[in-house]
Amino acid sequence: MKQGGSDAAKRAAGEAAAETVEDGTVVGLGTGSTAAHAIRAIGRRVDAGLDAVGVPTSFQSRELARENGIPLADLDEVSVDVAIDGADEVAGGDLVKGGGAAHAREKVVDASADRFLVVADPSKETEALSYPVPVEVLPAARSTVAERIEALGGDPDLRRAERKDGPVVTDNGNLVLDCAFGEIADPGSLATALSTVPGVVEHGLFVGLADAVYVGSEDGVTVHE
Ligand code: 5RP
């Protein structure tokens, strides 16, 4: 994932989005370092009396929410009022997500929310998406999916674990192909094409799902609706 942003900028974005969570609501809890600031801030508000329930998007966000005292529910028990999640790249309302290999559950939770708030630092903003698209694949379909992605003009690369010998395995037990397409002229068409490849569980193109983007900086937060 892009690492250019400062932690202060991520914190500003995450905390500003967390401030919008209303009493009596269900919140989708995103994954990554920016969403983590929102989770910690919601935890502090719960500690101070806010009535909110969280729906985690990953093992990582579930653990952080537990540590911060946020009551949790599964998506089949509640409906999500607002989801707060990070992104690897943001172009208007379109995103690339999945730097944390959590994009399958993130997409289910974020897309189900009445409002989906993206939290980001300025290094994530771009005119056109070009970040390699994470594609979660069934392990048995790794090479057939890779061939289909090459036919779509992409360059698939199996994501490997940084500190272990072997591939990254998602919370769902699958593999991730990071697929470079260069500048993505039509994210909607590519998203549809990727979704139709047999063996693809989910890809990290989030097209037209965001309701607002909170971009933090050392000086404050800009909100793009
Ligand atoms: C995880 C994600 C993250 O939201 C994305 O990678 C951004 O992470 P960070 O806020 O740490 O830069 O999509 O799958």
From TrEMBL:
Highest taxon of the lineage = Archaea
The pathway it acts in is: Carbohydrate degradation; pentose phosphate pathway; D-ribose 5-phosphate from D-ribulose 5-phosphate (non-oxidative stage): step 1/1
Q: Which Gene3D superfamilies match?
A: 3.30.70.260, 3.40.50.1360
Q: Which InterPro entries match?
A: NagB/RpiA_transferase-like, Ribose5P_isomerase_typA_subgr, Ribose5P_isomerase_type_A
For this protein, the parts annotated as crossing the membrane are none
Uppermost EC category: isomerase
Under catalytic activity, the entry for this protein gives: aldehydo-D-ribose 5-phosphate = D-ribulose 5-phosphate
Which key words tag this protein in UniProt? Isomerase
Chain residue ranges for the region called Disordered: 1-22
GO BP term, pick one: pentose-phosphate shunt, non-oxidative branch
Record's family? Belongs to the ribose 5-phosphate isomerase family.
Q: What does this protein do?
A: Catalyzes the reversible conversion of ribose-5-phosphate to ribulose 5-phosphate.
Q: What is this protein called?
A: Ribose-5-phosphate isomerase A
This chain's source organism reads Haloarcula nitratireducens
Annotated gene: rpiA
